Structure formats: structure tokens, C-alpha cells
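Hi everyone, sorry if this is the wrong subforum. Our group has a chain we'd like a structural model of before ordering constructs, and none of us has done structure prediction before. Sequence below.
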Amino acid sequence: MNILIVRVSSLGDVVHNMPMVSDIRRHYPDANIDWVVEEGYTGLVRMNHDVRRIIPIALRRWRKSLSSAATRAEISNFRQQLKQDAYDIVFDTQGLLKTSVVMRMARLAPGGQRVGLANATEGSGYEPLSRIFHTKSVEVGLHTHAVLRAREVAAKALGYGVDGVADFNLHPPAMTSAERPAWLPDEPYAVFFHGTARAAKQWPNANWVRIAALLAERDLPVLLPWGSDAEKKTAEQLASQMTNAQVLPKLPLMEAVLLAQRAALVIGVDTGLTHIAAAFNRPTIELYCDSPRWKTEGNWSSQIINLGELGAPPTVEQVALAVDTLTQKIDWRKAAGVEPTRE
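Answer:
Right subforum, don't worry. Here is the predicted structure as C-alpha cells:
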């Protein structure tokens, strides 16, 4: 059976679709599973070894230059890749008109189905018009977690029940000594994923400073990544008030994934890289300041503690208690939990 998943973005949502792949593989071990994803996230999907073929799409870039010959050639090549195989099932788990159009472009095998969401979950960007290309629309509950939503779509289409803990099945590529980034410490470290596009989802700077002081007492350094000029400025302001912090250089996505995957402790707001750390089952404290926790909280491991709620940010005391809870379980010498670097 050939299966195609259309989930093009965003970072956290792509990660939250990984257990859907594991479920399909468990129930249909011989299935070929392909994935259409934004070109910037191909490295992330490549870490899931159950995905046979990744078909990159560049909607964000293409829409800026639709009239250029180079863009038209890329779109033509993308269409050819979509039609390389005939699919028994094409899943659109994003529920947007643009992703349903991509679903429609794929070639179906005789009797094949196009399966997507029948309805929105609360607060999602679902577009009802996306159903026009479905042969089967799957209804989900109004408050269905992002991971469970994708798992239910696949389960109801393929005739099995959702069971077991979510398995993200992520395998970072092997890294030689020469490939090891200069910023990556040899010793255990904490990461603060403090940045997010929406200001209301951020946690106050003074709170981060107090938690850094708590970690300094444990001799644990704090790394501060950033993704925009504003976030860099914030990171520098934070570091100036911390005795154990380092502002990182701007990291490409896969180095940011490496940062999360090797961290001894991750504390982050509701953003993609925090969810990646949780998917790796790193000791993670997720901070919900202005978004509903039920949508994306890490609920598959005791290594993940979720704090706060829409309109009710977590307090410093709550985060400090979570740090104590997680660090009691952690041997810092073994906290990175990664394979040795290859020579």
C-alpha cells in the first residue's frame, strides 16, 4: 500500500504528525509512506526512518515569485514528483485549502481515497473549503490534542484503533567530530526557548533570570538561542543578568533540533523547538502563557511537565518546583543521553 501524508508546516505541527506514521507502520508494516512538507522541514522528517520518500514543497517561497520561469519549473518538478507513484490513501492533516489542493494533485491508485479533517478543533486554522477534494472526511472532537488528531485521522481511515503512547520515532543523523558545531558543549546544559512570534505567549524576562540563578546553583549552564533580531536582543538582555548563560549564534533548523535533542533540561514557551525537545523525551518544562495547554502539551512522558494555561501563565515558584522534580531524576553526567561522536 502506498500512502502520502500532506502536512507542510509548521515546525511543531510537523513533529506532532510523527506518531501517526508510527501507528501506520505498526498496523501496516509493508506500507510505503511518503510525505509532502515545506522544504525547510525536510531534514526533520528525514529523521523518521518510517518515511520512505520526502517530497519538498516551497509554497512560502513560490508565492513571492510565481511569475518567474525558475519558480514555474520548480512547481512543474513538484507535480511530477507527486505523480511518480499512485497512492492508495492521501492524507491531508492540515485542513487548509492549499493543502487540499496539493492532495488533489497527487495521483490515486484505483479505489484510492483522499482523507482529511471533517471539522476544526477549537482555535485551529481549519478551512471548511478543504473538504471539496476529500473522498472521506474524518470528524474529531473539539478539544482533540494535535498528536491525537492526526493519529485518529489515520486510524479511522485505515480501520484500526488508536492505542499506546505516542511514538515519534526520531533518529538524529550520526555526526563526525568535524561536523560537531563549535557551540555544542561537552558538558550537560539547559536550554531556554524563550522566543516566540506572539508576544503574549512569552514569559517575563525577570522570571527567566530567577530560574537561571536556580540552575547556576546546580552548576548547569544555560544556552540561549534566538531566531530573529528581536529575540537576539532579548537573549543578550537575559544573558547580561545571568551568571551561567551563553547567547548562541543564529542556528540553522537542524542545529536547533540538535540543541533540543542533546539538552539535559529544556524550559520553553509554546513553540516548535520546545515541542521537539518533548518529542525526544528530553526533561522538558513547557510554559503555556497565552495558549490552551490541551492542544499541544507533552502528555506522553513523565519527563515532560506542562505548566500554565491560556491567560494564566506559570509562576516562578511552579517552574522552580518542576525543575526540582526533574533534576531529582537526572544524573547530569549522563543527561545528554546521546551516542558518542564518530571519528
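For your construct planning: The longest strand covers residues 108-117. Residues 338-343 have pLDDT under 50 and may be disordered.
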